[in-house]
Amino acid sequence: MSNQSESLESVVIGDGVVVKGTFTVPSKAIINGVIEGDLTAEEVLIGPTGRITGRVSAKVIDVRGQLHNTIISEKSLIVRATGKIAGKVQYAEIEIEKGGEIEGTLSQSADGPAIQVGTSPAA
C-alpha cells in the first residue's frame, strides 16, 4: 500500500518533455526531460537525458544527466559517470563516479569544511 501512496506523491518528467516553473514533489521526482525552474523533492533522480536549470533541493540527488544552478542535497549527492553539474553545490555526503563532472563551488553542510574543486587532500 505504501508503494501506491509513494507513486501518487511522485512525478516523472519523460524524455522530450519540457516544463517551466516551480515544483514541489512530496516524494520522488524522476527527470528524463527538461525542467527550467526550481524543484524541491524528497528524492531527485536525473536520468541520462534529463536536465534541470534552476534551484534543486532534496535529501537525495542522483545525477546521470545535467544539473545547472544551485544544488542543495541534505543527505547525499551522487554524480554518476554520465552526470554533469555546474553551479553552487551544497551537500552532506558526496559520491562522484569516474567520468562524472562538477564545475563550480562545493560546500559540505554543517559537519564539514568547504571543498574546492581541483584540489587534492593533504597526505
Mean pLDDT: 89
State the total count of DSSP E strands.
9
Kindly estimate the percentage of residues that lie in beta strands according to DSSP.
over 45%
Number of helices: 1
- Spans of at least 5 consecutive residues whose pLDDT stays below 50 are 112-116, 118-123
Number of domain modules: 1
Shape summary? globular
Q: Give the SSE order as H and E letters.
A: HEEEEEEEEE
Summarize the main sheet.
Answer: 9 strands, mixed
Q: Nearest-angstrom radius of gyration?
A: 14 Å
Spatial gap, N to C terminus: 50 Å
Task: Describe the model.
By secondary structure, the protein is mainly beta. Strands 1, 2, 3, 4, 5, 6, 7, 8 and 9 form a 9-stranded mixed beta sheet that branches. The protein is 6% helix and 63% strand. The protein has one domain (2-115). The protein is built from 1 helix and 9 strands; from the N terminus they run H-E-E-E-E-E-E-E-E-E. It has one helix spanning 2-8, and strands at 11-13, 18-31, 34-46, 51-53, 56-63, 66-79, 84-96, 101-108, 114-115. The model is unreliable at 112-116 and 118-123 (pLDDT under 50). It is globular, with a radius of gyration of 14 Å. A hairpin with a 5-residue loop joins strand 8 and strand 9 (114-115).
